[in-house]
Amino acid sequence: MMNEQRREFIKKTALGVLVGLGAASGLVPAFSLEKTVLPVWDEQPVPGKIRWGMLIDTRKCKEDCKQCMVACHHEHNVPDFRNKKEEIKWIWKNQYQQVFPTASQQFPGKETQERSYLALCNHCADSPCTRVCPTGATFKRWDGIVAMDYHRCIGCRFCMASCPYGSRSFNWQDPRTAIHDPVTTYPTREQGVVEKCNFCSDRLVKGQQPACIEACPEQALTFGDLNDPRSDIRLLLESNETMQRKPELGTKPSVFYII
Amino acid sequence: MIEKALKGNRSYWIWIALLVSVIGIGLSVYNQQRWFGLTVTGMGRDISWGLYIAQFTFLVGVAASAVMVVLPYYLHNQKEFAKTVIIGEFMAVSATMMSMLFIMADMGRPDRILNIILYPNPRSIVFWDVLALSGYLIINLISGWAMLGAEKKGVAPSAWLKPLVYLSIPWAFSIHTVTAFLYAGMPGRHLWLTAVLAPRFLASAFAAGTALLILVSLVLKRSTGFDTGKEAREKLAILATYAGLANIFLLGMEFFTTFYSNVPAHKESLQYLYFGLEGKYQFVSLMWFSLISGVVSIAVLLFPALRRSTKWLIAACSFLVLSIWIDKGVGLIIGGFIPSPLEEIVEYNPTSTEILIALGIWGIGILLLTVLLKVTVAVKMETDS
C-alpha cells in the first residue's frame, strides 16, 4: 500500500517536473530547449567575419546638401518635431569642433572650420551602449552593426548616457504625429523607446547599399566590409590619412573621416 | 502588528490624509506622463536624465546609511543605538522603495519592466543594481519586522536573524557602490568617469542619511514622545560629521585632479557647475550654496557644545542634507550631461509635472515610513510600560 502510494507520488512528481520544464522553455528564451535557426541565411552567420564600416570624404561633402539626411530620415520614418529638445536624428551635420572635440583645435584652417561634418552612429566595435543596456534591446549583430530591438527597449535611456557621440535619440512623445511623409517599408517606433542609425540593415539584407550612400550626389560616402582587405573601403583607408571620432575612448568606431 | 498603524490620534490621521493627497496628485499627474510620454518633463535629447534619476541616486544613499547604526550596534555592541537601529532599517526600506519608484517613473516603457529579468544582461550594471536594491529592501524589511515581532512577544529574536543582519552590512555598501558604477563606467562622461565616485557616494550617503536619521528621531520624539536617546543622536552626529568631512575631502581631490591636470574634457563639467562655461552658469549659485552650507554645517557639528543643543543640531543636520541633496542630485547627475557629447551647453529645468510626480513618490515613501514607525513606536511603548 505504502509503496504504491510512493510510486504514484514519484510518477506525478516526474510528470510535474516535465510539464514545468516544458513551460519554462517556452517562457524563458535563455532556457529554450530548441534553438531556432533563421531560414534567411543559407549558412549560420559567423560573428566577426564581416564588420560593416563607412568612410566619409568630407572634402567632397557639399555645404548646403542635405540629401543623405533627407533620404535616411524618409526611408526610416524618422519623425521631425521641429524642436531641438526632442529632436530625433539618425544622421546630421555639425561643426568641426562639435564632431571632433578632442582633435587639435588651436589653429584650424579657415576651410576646415567653416565646413560642416556628417555625424551618425559609429557602430563601434567596442560599443558602450550595448554594454550598458539592461535588456539587450540594443545589441551587436554578427556583422558589426549595433542594432535596436524597439519592442524590447524599456526606455531607461542608459544607452543615451553612455554614447559618447550623441548618436541616440529618444521618443519623448508619440513619433507618428511628426512623420510627415511615412513609408510602409520600415516600421515606425512607439513612444518611450530609443532609436538610432541601423546602418540600413533593412537594405543590406536586400542586397542594397545604405540609403545615405545611394543618395549622395558627390559619392562622398563609401560603405563596405572593414574585415575584407580587398574592399574599397579598406583600400581607401590604407591610401588616405583618416580620422575617427574620439578614438581615445577605445570604442573603435566603424565610421572614418577624410578631412 | 500592522493593526497598530490603524490606531492614531487626530494629528496622525491629518498627516496620513496629507500624504495620501500628495500621492493622489502625483498619481494623477503620472497618468498624464504615461499618456503623453516623457515630453511632459524638462528632460530632452541632451539632458536625458533629470530630477527622477537624481532623486534615485540620493535615496539609494539614504538607504545605504542604515549601516551607520546597524554596524556599530550589531558588530560593536554599541548599546546606545538599541532604539535607533530599527528606525534606520525602516528608513532604509522606505528609501529603497522610493528609489525603485523613481526608476519606474523615469522609464519610457514601464510596462516592459520585466524585460530586465526576462532578458537579463549581466554586463549591464542596471541588472546588478536591481538585484542589489530588491535584495536590500527584503533584507531590511524582514530583519526589522522580525526583530520588532520578537520584542512584542517578549522573546529573543530567532537565530536566523543574526546572519541576515550581518549580511545587510556589506549589502548596504554594495547598493551604493553599484549605483556609483552605473555612472562611473561610461566613457565620455568625464564628471562621472572617476575612481572616487563610489567612495564619494558612500561618504555623502553616510553624511546625509545619518543626518536625516537624526532629524527623523527628533520628529518622532516630538510627535510621539518616543525618544531614541540624546546619546544615540550625538553619536550619530559625530558619524555624520566625519562622513561629511570625507565627502568634502573627496570633492577636493576631484577639484585638484581636474584643474591642476587641466585636461579640457575632465574640466568642463566641473567648470560649468562651479564657475560657469561659455557664459552659461545655471547652477553656479546653487553649487556654491551647497558647498558653503555643507562646510558650515559640518563646522557646527564639530563643536560638542553646538551639536548638543537640539536647535543647532536640527539646523546643521537640515543644511547638511540639503547640501548633499543639491550636490548629488542636481550637480552630479545634471552636471554629467553638460556639455553634451557634441559640446553643447543645454539648460535643464524640471517641469511642474515632474516635480509633482517626484513629490508623489516622496509621499509614498514617507507614508510607508510613517506606518512602519507607527507600529514600531506602538510596540516599543507597549513593552516599555
What's this, in brief?
Chain A is an alpha+beta fold and 259 residues long. Chain A is built from 9 helices and 9 strands.
Distance between the termini of chain B: 17 Å
**What about the largest sheet of chain B?**
none
The largest inter-chain interface, given as chain pair and residues per side, is:
A-B, 51 and 44 residues
The overall average pLDDT of chain B, rounded, is 93
How would you sum up the global shape of chain A?
A: elongated
**Helix proportion of chain B:** over 70%
Helix content of chain A: 25-40%
Walk me through the topology.
The complex is a heterodimer of chains A (259) and B (385).
Chain A: H1 2-27, E1 52-57, H2 67-75, E2 91-95, H3 96-99, H4 110-114, E3 116-120, H5 128-132, E4 138-140, E5 146-148, H6 158-162, E6 169-170, E7 194-195, H7 201-204, H8 211-215, E8 221-225, H9 232-239, E9 255-258
Parallel strand pairs in A: 1-9
Antiparallel strand pairs in A: 1-8, 2-3, 4-5, 6-7
Chain B: H1 10-36, H2 51-64, H3 67-75, H4 85-106, H5 115-118, H6 125-153, H7 161-184, H8 197-224, H9 230-261, H10 264-274, H11 284-302, H12 304-308, H13 310-335, H14 352-384
Structure report:
The complex is a heterodimer of chains A (259) and B (385). Chain A is of the alpha+beta class and 259 residues long. Chain A folds into two domains: 2-31; 52-258, 2-Layer Sandwich (Alpha-Beta Plaits), CATH 3.30.70. Chain A has helices at 2-27, 67-75, 96-99, 110-114, 128-132, 158-162, 201-204, 211-215, 232-239; strands at residues 52-57, 91-95, 116-120, 138-140, 146-148, 169-170, 194-195, 221-225, 255-258. Chain A has a three-stranded mixed β-sheet, covered by helices on one side. In chain A, strands 2-3 form a two-stranded antiparallel sheet. Mean pLDDT of chain A is 89; it is low at 34-42. Helices cover 74% and strands 0% of the residues of chain B. Chain B has 385 residues and is mainly alpha-helical. Chain B has a single domain, classed as Up-down Bundle (Formate dehydrogenase/DMSO reductase fold). Chain B has helices at 10-36, 51-64, 67-75, 85-106, 115-118, 125-153, 161-184, 197-224, 230-261, 264-274, 284-302, 304-308, 310-335, 352-384. The interface between A and B is large, with 51 and 44 residues.
